[in-house]
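User: Some background: our group keeps a shared notebook of sequences we're curious about, and every so often someone picks one and asks for a predicted structure to add to the entry. Today it's my turn. The entry only has the sequence so far, pasted here. Could you supply the structure so I can complete it?
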Amino acid sequence: MAIIRCTLALGLAFVLLQFVHVRHLSMARTAPKQPVQVQSAGDPEVSAILGRSCIDCHSSHTVVPWYGRVAPISWILSSHVNRGRQKLDFSAWDSRGPLRGEKQDICDAVSDGSMPLRSYILIHRHAKLTNHDTDAICNWADAQSVSQVAPAR
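Assistant: Of course. Here's the predicted structure to add to the notebook entry:
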């Protein structure tokens, strides 16, 4: 009898959690027909890598899967995306381009393995970066930093 009461209480708590809303995110409801890419990255290979592995949390093109609308997963997802956009928002690159040091920050994050988040990769295996992907991103970042430092002729 206690097991039934406990199960009912947990079920009721789960249902009630669905009415607790988190800060609204502007997220796409369905996956786009074409993969979203960071066009302003300038390098097609890097653009594709960033689009595959970063754009979901670091842009306004976030695609929310069905389970991302169920509490408490929705709260975690919202928190991750909000923090991701605050740190780096690729959507802004179309109007302003990358700020000084942003590309190097991306290289640092993928090189040390802190990005993409492991929790994201567990569900989105396609987002896992290979050594080649990391090298391509860092070469792209290094090429820009070298051109910024090079003296004008």
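Suggested note for the entry: Residues 2-149 form one domain. Residues 130 and 136 are 10 Å apart (CA to CA).
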